[in-house]
Protein 1
Amino acid sequence: MKFWIGSAVVLIVALALALTPVNEYFFFAGYVVLTAVVLATAWNILGGYAGYVNFGTPAFFGIGAYTGVLLFKWLAAPLALQIAAGAFMGGLLGFGVGMLTLRLRGIFFAIATVAVVFIMETLMTNWRYVGGATGLQILRPTVLPPFETYTRMLFVVMAFMSIVAVSLARYIQVSWVGRGLRAIRDSEEAAECSGVPTLRLKLFACVISGALMAAAGAPMPMYLSFIEPASTFNLSYTISALGSAIIGGMSHWLGPIIGAILLGSIQQIVTVTISGEVNVLVIGVLLVLFVVVAPEGILGLFKRWARTSSK
Amino acid sequence: MGQNVLEVKGVSKHFGGFTALSEVSLALAPGERFGLIGPNGSGKTTLINCVSGSLRNDAGSIVFNGEEISRLPAYQRTRRGIARSFQIPRPFKDMSVLENLMVPLQYVGKLKEGEAREQARVLASDMGLGEKAEAMSSRLSQVELRKLELARAMAARPKLLISDEAMAGLSGSEVDEVLAILFKLNETGITIIMIEHIMQAVMRFSQRIICLDAGKIICEGTPTSIVKNVDVQKAYLGA
C-alpha cells in the first residue's frame, strides 16, 4: 500500500510542478533523469535479477524512438500510440534477441547484445524514410491542455512511465518470477534442476526489459524535435543504465532509481557547469569507485551500515 | 513385478573425441537404494547429468516411470520426479535457506508464497536446518550446505533422488548425519542413487552397486560382492 501511495504522490507532485511557473530547464533536465530511471529499472530486470549483462540498451531505446518517428511521420499518431507501439516493438526485439542469445552466457551474451546495437544502427542509417544518416527534423504537434509546453507534458508522461516501470520491476522482484530469476543468477544449472524453466524465464525478462527500454525511447524524438542514428544508438545509454543499477544496487528495485537519480542529476550538473563530454568521465569514475568500494551499491552500503549499527 | 522407476538403455556420451559414457545400461526398482561408484573420471557424474537433464546423451534412451525423457529439458525432468544434489553445493547465495527451498516448492509444487514458506519451514526442520531457516545460505557451514542441497532436492517432491557426493569433505559424525537423512528419505519410498567416494558410506547404504570405469560398467552386484571383485580393485588401485 505504501508503494502505491508513494507512487501517487510522485505523480501528483510531477503534475503540480508542470503546472507551476518553474524554470523550463528543470523539466528539460528532469525528463532526462526520469528516462534514466526507466532505462536503469528495465536494465536491472535482466541484468540485476537474472545476472545477464545486456549491452544492447541503445538498440531497444532506439527501436522505440524510431517506431515513434515512423508512426508520427506516417500516420501523425498521437504520443500514447507511439509509446505503446514502441513498447510492443521493443518487446518483440527482446523476444528475438533473447531467442538468439539467451543460450549464451557471460561475456558471449554481452558481446551478442552489442552486435544488436550495431545492426539496428546500420539499418536506421540506411533507411531514408526515417531520415537515414543525416537524421530527421520533427515538428511537434500542439501541446495538450493543461500543459503550457510540450517539454512539461513529456516530463509528466515520463514520470508516469517511471512509475509503471518501477511497479513492474517491483512485482517481478517480490514474486515467484523474481525468485526464479535470482536462482538463475546464482546457478542456472541448479535453478533448472529445481524446476525453474530457465530459458522461458530469461525470455520473459528480456521481453519486459526490452519493452520498457523502447517505451522510454519512444517520446525521445518529440523531446528533441529531431532524431538521427548516431546519438540514438549511442552506447552511453548502456553505460548510464548499467552504471545506475550498479551504483544504486542491483538486488532491489529501489537501487536503479537511486542510482539513476544520483547519476542523472550529477550528469546534468556537470553538463551545465563543465561540459557534456565530462559527464561520461563522471560515470566512469563513479563506476570504478563503487565496483571497488561498494560492489553492492548504495543499497548494499546502507544495509551494511544498518547491520553494524544494530549489533 | 512392478515397473522400473528408471531405465537407462545403451546411453553414450562423447565430449569431442573423448568417450565419457559408452553404452551404459541399468534399471532401478521403486524404493531401491542404489550405489554408483568408480574412480575419478569414470563417468559417474556424466551419467547422472544425462539422467537429470544437465547433459543430453548422444545415444541410447532414458526412461523414467515408463516415459522416454532423453529429449526433455532438466526442469521438465525435475517436474516429473527426478531431483538431484550437486557434488559442489550450489546454493542460491542471495537467498535465505527458506527461499532456497521455496524455489522448487513454487516451480514444481506450484504453491503460493505463504504455503511455500510454510512447507519450506517444515522441510528445513525435517532436514536439521530448522534453526538456520532464516539464515542466508552464503553463511552456512559445509555440512549445512550439504543438507540444504538435499532439502532443496526434496522440495521438488522427487520419486528419484540423485545424491552426488553429498558427503564429500564431511567428518565421520557428519557423514553419519547425512546417511541417516538419506535412510529416512528412502523409507518414504523414494528411490535413491548415491554417488560417493566414501566407500563405507556406499557399502552401508546401497542394496545394489554398479562400478563404472572409463565410461563402462565393469561390475554390478551387492556391496559384499563388489568389494571382492577383482575388476573393481584394479580400477581403484590400478593393480
Note: The two ends of chain B are 40 Å apart (CA to CA).
Protein 2
Amino acid sequence: MKLRILLADDHEIVRRGLCALLQKHEGWEVCGEASDGREAVEMAKQLKPDVIIVDIGMPHLNGLDTTRRLLEHDPHFRVIVLTITDSDQIIREALDAGARGFVLKSDAARDLVSAVEALQSKRMFFTPRVNDLVLAGFLEKGHAISRTEAPNLPTLTAREREVTQLLAEGKSSKEVATVLNLSTKTVETHRSNIMRKLSLHSIRDLVVYAIKNNIIQIQMPPQIQRPTETTVA
Amino acid sequence: MKSFAKGFHETASESKNLMAVRILLVDDHPVVRQGLRTLLEGRTGWEVVGEASDGIEALEKVQSLHPDVVVLDVTMPRLNGLEACRLIQQKQKPSGLEVLVVTQHDSPQMMREALDAGARGYVVKSNAARDLLDAVEAVSQHRLFTALARGPQASR
C-alpha cells in the first residue's frame, strides 16, 4: 500500500517542485495539494494522509496553527513543517505545535525525502540546528526545551490567533467574518479581546506583533548594492 | 480556399509553439527550480539548458550556455537577481538574450527596479503557474510581459 502524502504550500510552483521530488520515490503518492492552512485541515480530515507537509508561511492560517489544528483533530497525524528560517523561536513553536519533522525549504531537495522516510518509520526528522537546540536545552537545564523558555506572551486562543493573522494580512473585520463564517460583530469582539490582551492600540501594532510572533511572515527586499556614484531617483 | 486557410493557420500556430527556446533557471531553492522546470518542459521545443543557485553562478552559466531566456529570482545569496540582471545586460545585450524576473515580491516598486535593471518580464512567484509560460513566450520574442499578483498588465 502506498504512503499517502498531503502537501500544503501557497505557491503552486513549490508544490510542483515538491511533487516531482516525492513522486520519484517508489511507493509514495501525493494524495492532495492545499494552497492554505484552512484548506489543508479540511483536506486532511477527508483524505486521512499518512504524512502532511506544511509550509509555515501560508495565508489565512499559518503552518504552525495548521499543525496545531491538525493534531487537535487527530493526534496520529504526522506533520513535517517546511520553513524558510530555523530561528530558535520558530523551532520551539514547531516542536510545541507537535511537528515531527522540520525541514528548511532551501534544503528540501536534499532533506525532504529523508524526513518522509523517517516519519514513515515512526521516527522524527530535524535539521542539525534543531538537534543542537534540543540537546543544548537538555544539557543546560536538565530537560528538553519547553514552552516556558519562549517569550512570556499572553495566550491567545486558536480562534484569536486566526483572527490576528487575517487582520494582520490586511483584511477588514467584515472580510474576516466572511472567511471564518462568523458575524462581523463576533469578529469585532475577538478583535477587541486581542487588542486588550496584548495591550495593542492599532492595527499597525497588531501587524508588528504578528510578524514578531511568526503569525505572518514577510519577505524583505534584497539589499541593493550599487556603486556609490550611481544614485537612485 | 477555406481549408487551405485553416491549414495555413495551424501550420503557423504549430511553428510558433515549436519555436526553440533555451532557458536558464536561476533560483536559490532547488525545489522552486524543479517546479519551474516541470512547467517549462511541458512546452514543446523549450529546453531548460541549465540551472544556477545565485547571481554569480548565473553570470557564469550565461557565458557558457548562451540561453535565450534567463528566468531569474531576485532574493539570492552572493549576488542578488537585480544586480545579476544589470551585469547580464551589460555583457550580453547584443546577443538578444532576455531576462524574466520571477520573484516573491508583489510590488510595483520592485517591478520598476527589475525593468530598470534591464529585465523584459516580471512575474510574481505566487502566480508563476498562471503567468510563467505566457511570460517566457513573450520575452523570448522580445516583448514586454509584466504581471503582479492581481493579473497581467496590458503592456505586451
Note: The beta strands of chain B are 21-26, 46-52, 69-72, 98-103, 121-124, 145-148, 151-152.
Protein 3
Amino acid sequence: MVKIKHPRLSKPPLYKVLLAFTMIYFIIFGILMAHTAGQPDQAPHNYYSQKYSETWGIPEENLNIRYTFIGQPYLYYWLNGAIYKVYNSLFPTGKLRPVLMWRLMSVFYSTLTVFFTYKLASKVTGNPYAGVLVSFLLSNTLMFVFVSGGISNDNLMNLAATAAIYHLVNIYKREDFIWQTALTGIWVIIGSLAKEQFLLLTLIIFLAWLFFVICNCRKINLEFKRKNIFIILIFIGSLVLFLGLYGTNLLRYSRTTPACAQIKSVGSCRTYGYRYDFYKPFNLQWIWFARDDLTNPIKYGITYWGFKMIESIWGILSETSFIPMLSVSLHGVLILWALFCHFFYWQPKDTNATLLFVILLSYCVYVFLWNYKTEVEFNFQHYGVTGRYLLPILGTLLTLITHSFMKIKSLLLKRITIALVVLLYFAGGFGMYISRYAEIFSHWRIYY
Amino acid sequence: MRFIKSKVTRICIICVLMILVTASLTATILFRLPFFYEQSTQEKAMTFLVIGLFLLIFVILAFKTFIFPSLRQITKRNDLIFIGFMAILLTLALAVTSAHYWAVPEIHMVEICFNAGNESDNLDIQKLVDPNTNRLYSPDSFGFTRYPITINSGQCVTGRIMNLLSPLTQPLMGFRLTAVVQDDPPEGRFYVTINDVPAVINFEQDTEIQPTSDIVFKDGFEKGKKLDVPWSQYWFVCVKGLGIFLSAIYLSLFLFGLTEQIIAFSPNDTVQPNGIPHGQNKTP
C-alpha cells in the first residue's frame, strides 16, 4: 500500500494572526467612520473626484468657479475617477454611491498605511510584535481613523509617507540599495502627486537618502538584477509624471502649484479657500518692531500649538469636533514619557531611531513654522492649525514611541507601560467610538 | 485537592471559568451602551447571547494563546505586582468611567402632535436629545428607523424615551428633553405631552421673534416609570460589581500574557521569507 503524504499546513506565527486581527479591526472601525460626516473639505474633494470620473485625463477648467485643475496634484482624484469608471463598466446597474465608494477607497489606503506602519515598526525594533502593537496604536488614533473614513487626498499621502519612510529605513538597514531606492522614490512621487504638502517630506527623505549615499558611497552595492531594471523603469515613469507636474509649474508659474489668480479672474478667486493668495505677506521687519506685543514662537508653541496638535490627533478637530480631554491629556503624558525614554536610552549606534527622530523633528518644525507664519499674517485667528497636517509622520511617531518603551530596562516598568499604552489607545480609539456613539457619533451618522 | 488533578474536572472548571469571564465581559460592555437599555427583555437576552458567543471565541483564543502559556511563569514578585496593579487599576477604571454602567432606566411616555396653520404642511423633528448628555434618543419607539421624525398636519406620534439615572451623574442632571425641529418650521401648533403633561408651542412666521429650532421640555418628567427591578436592587448591583472585578482579573492576565509575548520575543524565533531571522540584515 502506498502511503500518501499530505502536505502539512504550517501554523502561521502568532504575530501574523495578530496583525490580521488588527487590520480587520481597523477596517471595521474605518467603515464605521465612512458612515460618519464631518471630515475636512468634503465638498471640494467630492467635486474634484466627480470631475475626474468624467474623463481619463485632466478635466476641463471652468473659469466661473473657484476650483482649479491646472497644475494641481491630481493622482488621488484621478484614482477615484478611475475606480468609479471601472465599477460602472463592470456593474452598469450597480447601486453603490460614488461618495461611499471613494470613502471606502480611503479606508483601503489607510489599511495599507496600517500595514506599512507594522512593517516600519518591525524593521526599526526588530520585533514583529512591536510592529503589531504600533499598527494597533495607529488603528486607534481617532483623527487618523476619522480622516480615513472621508474623501481626502490625505489618505493617499499618509500611505505614501509611511511606505517611503519604511523603504528609506531599509536603505539605512543596508538592504538592496537599488530596489529600495527605487521604491522610496516611487512612493515619494505618489505622495507628491497626491498633495502638494508632501513636497516637504520629499525634500526631507531626499536629504536623508543623500546623506546615506555620501556616508556610504564606497560600500553601496549597485548590483543590477532583472527585477531592479523593472522597478527602475517604473521609477523613471513616475519621475516623468513628477517633473511633468512640478517642473512645468516651476517653469510656467514660478511656483510649485499655480495661484488661482494665475489661472482665473481675480473675482473667481476671492474666496476663503484662496485666502493665502490675498493677504499681507509675512514681514520680518514689522515683526522686529512689534516684538514686544507679538505672541512669540516660544510662547505660541508652549501655550497653544503643542496642545492643539495633541487635541486634534487623539481627538477630532474638523467640521465637527470631539475632544475627549482626559484621553487627550493622557496621550500627551505618554508622549512626554516616550520622549524621556528616547533620550534616556538613546545610543549613537541606533541609526534607525535617530533617522526617524530627525524626520519627525524636521517635519514638525516646518509645520510649526508654517502655522506660526499663518498666525502672524492672519492676526492669530488659528487658520489651519490642526494635527491632521502631522498625520503623514504619525506612524513614525508611534514607531519611535514604541521603540523607546521597548528599551526600558526595568521589566516591570516596561510591562506596565506597554499594558497602559494598549489600554489607553483602545479606550481612546474604538472603545471611545462605541461608548460615546449615542452622545457624539450618532449625531454625525450618514445614511447612504 | 486530588479531584483537580483529574483532566475532566480541570476542563470543567476551565469551561465554567471561561463562561463566567465571558458573561462578565459581555455585561461590562453592554451595560455601558444606552441602546442595550432601550431594548425589550427578549431583545436584551438575544443581544447578550450573540455578543457573548462572539466574545467567547476571543476569550477561548486568548486563554489558549496568551494566558495558559504564561500562567506558569507567574512566580516572580514583579509579575504578581503587575497583575495586582492592573487588576486594581482596571477595576477602578471600569467602575467609574461609565455612568451608564450603574444606571437605572426611567421610561417616559411621549406624544408629539402638529397642526399646521394651512392644514397641509408637515413638521420634521430632526432629533430628540437628552440635553444633559447630548444623547440621541432612539426614534424606534416612534415608529421610525431614523431621524427625522416627520409629523403630518393633524397627526400625532407616540413613543417613549428612556433616561438613564446613575448615582455618578444624577445630582448634576435635570430631566429634560430637547426637540430639534427643522429650520424655519411651518406656521402651526406643536403639541408635546410627556407622561400626560402637555406643552404647546405655536410657530408663527409673522412675528418678530423667530422660534429657535431647539425646544427644551421640562414638565412631566417627575411622572416617569423607574425600573427599579432589577436595576437598583442590591444583588444586581453586586453582580455588576463582581462582573467588573472578574473582567479586570481576566484582562490583567491577558495583558500579562500579551506583554510577555511582546517583550520575550527573540529575533531567532521567526525567520523572514528570505530565510534570514528577523532583526538580522543583509549586508551589501
Note: Chain A has 18 helices and two strands.
Protein 4
Amino acid sequence: MTAFDFELIRQGRVAAVSVEVAALDDAGRAKTARDLLAYVKRRAENHWRGDELSALAVATIGCVPSAAAAARILTGRWMSPGRDTVDAVVTTARARGVTWLPELVTRLADRRPTDEDGRLWAFIALVLAAEGLPAPATDWFVLGWLSDLGFPAEERLRSRPIAERLRTDPFLDALLPRVFTVAGAGERLTMWESSRPGGKLALIQAIAELAAEGRVDRDMLLRGCLGRLLHGDRPAAVRPLLALLSALAPAPAEVAAHAGDYLRLLADAPSPVATAAQKALRTAPDLDLDAVLEASKAVLRRPDKALVRAQLTWLDALARRHPARAADVAAALAEAADHPAVELRERATVLAARHGGATPVAVVAVAAGDDLPPPPPPVPAPPPITDPDELAEEVAAFYSGRPFAALLPLERIADAVVRLSAADRPALRAALLPVLERHRDGMGEHRWDPCCLCGTFTGVLHSATDVQQATARRGGWAALLAAARRFLALGEPAPDPRVAPPHRLLRARLAEIGMHAARPDVVPRLSGSTGSTGSTGLGAPAGRGGSADLVGSVGASAPVGSGGSAGQVGSIATVGLLAAPTWANGALDTAVLLDRLAVLGGHEPWPWDFTQALLRLPPGIDEPSAARAEALGTTAGARVAAWLRTGGLPSPRWHVETVSRRPRKHAGDYEHDSLPLLRVQVGTSAAATASRPPRSGAVTTGLSVAAPGSAAPAARGADAAEAESFGLLGSALPTVGGGTGGWHVLWPGLLPWHRGLAAAHALPDVAATADMDRRGGAAVLPMLAEAAGDPGPALPIAVAYGLAARHEADRVAALDALLLLAAAGSFDAETAGRHLGVLAAGGAVTPARALQPLRDAAAAGAPRTVFRLLAAALPALLAAAPPPRGTPDLLTLAAETAPAAPGPVEIPGLADLAARRSGSRLTAEARRLSTALGLKF
Amino acid sequence: MSYPRASLTGVSVVQQYRYLAPSTAGDGGVDLQTCGGPAANPRFFAGFLTTPAAAAAGLLAVADVARTRYFQPRDPASLDPVVTGSADRLRFESFSGCCGVYARLDALPAGLDGEVLGHGTTNVDVNPPLREALARIAGLDPLHLSVGPDDLTASTLDGTVVEKKVPLPARWLRGFAEVQVLSAGFDLRAELTAAEAGAFLRRLPGANDRSVLWAVPAGRSLRLTSRPVPGAVCLAGAGRLAALRGLLRHSRSLRVYGPPVPAGSPPVASAWELDTGALRLTLTLSPEPHRGFSGEGAALASLAGDDVADDAELVGALLSWDPTIDVADLAAAAGLEPGRVRAALAQLGTAGRVGYDVADAAYFHRVLPYDAARAERDNPRLVGARALAESGAVTLDGSAATVRSGDQTYRVRRLPDGALTCTCPWWAKHRGGRGPCKHALAVTIAAATATAGTA
C-alpha cells in the first residue's frame, strides 16, 4: 500500500489525484480519508478553490465512506466550490459508484445561510442537473436560482432570451412556487441591467409569458402573489410582485374569485399594494357589497389621502348602483368624517349626506388659548463626587458614552478632580489610572476641530493624578491661559470664530485646573486695581509675580510653597470649584457661592473659575446678597458685591441679519453647493456704545466698555470694566457653513441665565439641521428652553429652524423646546414664524417639514402658539411665487387652530388668495382659513 | 469570501418538535397541533373563536415575531410559539430570534366559546401554509378552533407526522425569563383609542430605523419627545412594532406600559398592548434594538439566596393554572408573607415557570416546555463571575472591593441602597440598566462566601 501524496492536492493536479485515488485499496482509502480531514484542518486558513479544491474534492469523493464524512472535509470556512469543481465531483462519484451525492449536496446547501457570489449555487445546481436530482429545500437556493436566471453562471446561456431559458429550466416547477414563500425573493424578480429586451422586468414578463402558454399554473402565480402580498415583505421585494401581478393582468372574474384577498390588501397592505388592489377591485363584477363596506371602514381610516379619496368615489358609485343599500353605504362613508385630512372629512360628509346618511358631528373645535402643563421645576444638580472610586466610575461613564455630550458630568468630574487630587493624590491616582488606561483610545486632541477639548480634558485628569505629568504639561496650560487672556479678557479678535466665547471660557477653566495641578502650592489671587493692562488677574495665574499681587487681600495671607502637601484648609482645593453648578441647567445659587467664598476666606479664587461662577449667578440687582458678600471682607467678596449691584452681565443688543449665500469661488467649489441660500444669524453687542473700532466679522459692532449701573468703580479703568463682559458680547460671527459639530450643547449650561446669548452662539449648528440637513444640532433647544433669561431673537429663530429640520429627532427636540417655552409664556411665536416664513419663501428651509411638529404642538395643548407662529409665517409664504410646497397644509393647520387665536388677526395676502378664482388646493385652504378667521371674500 | 458563523453565546442544544400533523386553517376552522409539555401531544381546547379575523391576525403576529430577527436579520429564526392553557383562557407566546421582542396573544374568555380541556404549556406548530391561510381568514361568524390533536388525528398515525429540529440557543431561554422580571416593574403609561393608535403607529419610522425614541402622553395621543422625562415611554427600534399592524383595525385601544423613568434615563423596555375586547396582543420591546432581553440581567439582580429558592419551590408547588396569580391567596396558602411570595414568584419567573401579564399586573402560571432554569444558571456573566470569585480575584475592603481580571483592575463599590457599581466599561455604559456586571457579581459571590466562612 502506498501512501497518498498530498502534495498533488496542493499543486492542483486533478488528473494525477484521480489516478492515485483509483489505485488505493480499501484500507488505503480509509487511511487517506482520515488523513484528508487532518490535512484540511492543518490548512484551515487556505482559500480553497479552483484546481486545488477540485483535487481535494476528487480525493475526498474517492476515499470517504459517507456523505457526512465528505461534508466534514468540504464545508470548511474557506471552501468555495463552484462551477470549476463540478466535473471533478461528478466524474469521481460516477467512477466510484457513490450513491450519497444527493445527501452531500443537501449538506452543503444546509451548511450556509447565504451565498453572496453564487458560486456554491452554481456548483450545487450543476451537480443536481448532471445527476437529475431535485432542488434542495433551502431558502437561499431559491434566491440563487432567481439570481442565476437573471445572470446565468454558464456564459453560453447568457445570450439566450430569458423566457426560452426559463421554459427548459430543470428547477422551474419546483422553485417557482417557492418564490412566494421565501422572504425577500420578490426582490430578485427584477433584473439588475435594463439594456436587454424586456429591461428590468424581463424575468417577470417571461413568467407571464409562460403562464399565458400554460407552461406554468396561472392560478398558482396569482395565489402566490396575493399570498405573499398579504403576508407582507420588504418594500423592495413587494414592488416586483406588484409588477408580476400587473403583468399577469387578472381578468375581472379572476379578481372577483380572489376578492377576499384583494379586500384584505386594500384594507391592510402598504399604500402601493392597497392602491393596486383598489384599482383591480373596481373592475370586478358582483362583489359582495357587505364585504366591500366592511373593508371600506378600514380603508377610510388610513392616512393615505389618494387612497381614501378614491375609496370615497367608489363608495359613491356603489351607492348609485345599489340604491336599496344607499343607507349602508352612507354609514360606511361616515367613517371618514373624522379623518385627519380636512378636505377628505368634508368630502365624506357631503357624500354621506347625499346618500341619506346622518350628517356626522363636526370635529370638536379647538379650545381657546393654550392649555399646557406648567413647565417642570428646575432639577437640582447631583451631589458632588466624594470618593475616588466614584470619580473613576464617572470618568469611565464619561468615556464610555459620547464624551462631551452634556456639560454636567464634565463639571462634576472637574470639581471632583480638584478636590480629590488635593486631598490624596496617590489614592486618586490608584483609582483613576486603570480607567484612564482602559479608555486611552480616543482621548487625544482632534487637531482638525478648533473646539476640541478631548486632549485638554484628558490632560487635566492626568495632571491631577500625576505631578510629573502635570509639570510636563505646564507649558501647554500656560499657552492656553495666555490665549484665553488675549481673546476673552483683552478682547483681541479670535482666530477662529467657530469657537464661541463661552467655549473659550470653558477651555480656560480646564487649563486653569491643569495649571494648578502642576503647582498645587501656589494659590494665585485676583489682583486689585493694578492699572496695568493685562495684569487684571484674568490671565495666566502662574505667570509673573504680578499675578501674585497681594494688594487688596484681606485676612490671612495665602499659604505659599509649603512643600508637596496640598489641600490647605480653605483653599480652592478643599472648597472645590466655585463655579460648580447647584442646578442641572448650570445655574448657581448666590448663597452657595457666598458660602464657598466664606470657607475660602483670604485665599484668592482662581480667576476663570470665579468668572464662570459669576456668570452662573441669577442676574438682576440683589442688594441683600451684595451686602453679605461685602461683609466677607475679601477681594473676591467685594467683586461679587459689585457684580450683584450692577445686575450681572449687561443685556446685549441683538443684531439679526439675514445673510445670502456667498458667491461661488471657482468651478470646483463644491462647498458652495451645500450652503443655504439664506441664513439668519444673530450677533450681539454691548448695550453701551463701544469706544473701540468694530471687530472683524459680518455684524458685530464692538464690545462692552462699561457695565450698566453706577456701581462699577471708575478706578478699574476701561480694560477692567470691559472684562466684565468677558468678551461674551460682540464676538465675531462664524462664516455660514461652519458649525461646531456638536460642542454647542455645552454652552447653555455655561450661560444658564443668558440663554439668548447661548442661543445666538448655537444658532449656526441648529440652522444647519434645517438648511444643510445635518443631524443632531437641535438637541440643544430643550436645554436652552430649560435655561433662564431673555430668549432674545436667537432662541425663537433657532426653534423655527429646528421645526424645519431634516431629521425627526431634531424636529422633536424643537417641539419639546417650543412646548416648554410656550408653557412658561416666553416663546416669541411671531419672531419664530416670521423667520420661518422668510426662510421658507427664500428656499432655505422646507416648510412642509414643520407641519408634523406644529400639529403635535397644537394637539399637545399649544394651539394658540401654533396659530400665532403660522399667522406670522404665512404672509411671506403667500407672497412667494409660487408658495413653497406644504403651504396648503400649513393653511389648513392655521384654520384648525384659528379658534384659539387671541383676537382678530389679519394675514396680509390671504384675502387676495382666497378671492382668486381657482380650484387649486391652495385657494381652497386659503378660503377655509379666511372663513375660520371670519373674513369675507 | 467569508461566512461568519458566530456561535451565539452559551450552550446551544437542539429542540426537537414532533407534531402528529401539520397545523391547518381554513373555512373549516383552525386546527393547531401541539407537542411537548404536559404530554407528548397535549390537547388544550376545542370550541369556537368568537372573533376569527382578529384572532387570526393575532396568531399571525405571534408567529411573525417567532420567526423574525429584528436586529441583523439573516435567516429567519424558527422556534415555534408556545401556548398555555389556563383555567379560562389561552395564551400564545413567542420570542423573536434576536431576543429583543416578546409577543403574547391572550385569548380571553370573551374570545373563546368552548372548553379548555387541559392545562399546561406546549409548543404550537406554525408552517407557511398555515400562515397564508391565517392571513386569508375573514368574516364575522365564529370559527372552530382546536388546540392539540383530536382523537382522529391521534389515531391515524400515518405519514403526516411533522418533525423539526432547530437549535435552541440558551440566550433565547434567558430572554424568555428576563422579560417576565422586567415587565413586573411596568406601569400603565398611556391608553389610546384605536384611531389615535393607528395614527401614532403609522407615523413612526420604518423597519430599518434603529433609533431610541421617547413618547409622552399629549392630548388624546402620544407625542414623541427628544429626551426621557418622567412619565415617558421608551420606544426603541419602532419598526419592531410592525407585528401590531394586523390586529390594529380590530382593536379598541392601545395601552402602553413601561417602568418609571427619571429625567435623563437610559433606554428602557416597554410593552405595547392592543385590546380588542376578546383578545389582547402584547409586544414587549427590549431597551435597544441590538439588545436582547437575554443580556438584560434583571434576573441576576436577585441572585438567589437559599431561602428564596426554598420559597420558590413551595410556591411553585401551589400554582394551579389560574389565569392570574393572586399574591394574597397564595401567601395564605403557603403561609408566607406576601413580600416573600413576590420574591419567590420573581424567582419562578427566571426559571420560566410563571409569566407576567402587564394588563392584569399579575403573574400567571406557565411552565416553558424547555429547561429554562439551566439557561439562567449558565448565564455567561454569572459563569464569569464565579470564575473570578473562585480564582481569588476579589479583594474585599469595607464597602468596596478590588477585582483583578486579567491585567485589568476594577473597583466595585456598594452604595448605601445596596446596589453595586463598578469602574468597568460595561457598567459605565449601562450604569446598572442591564443588571450587575461580572465584577459586581463576583464581589457578591465573594462577600457571601466570606460571610458564610465567618459565620
Note: Chain A touches chain B through 62 residues (CB under 8 Å).
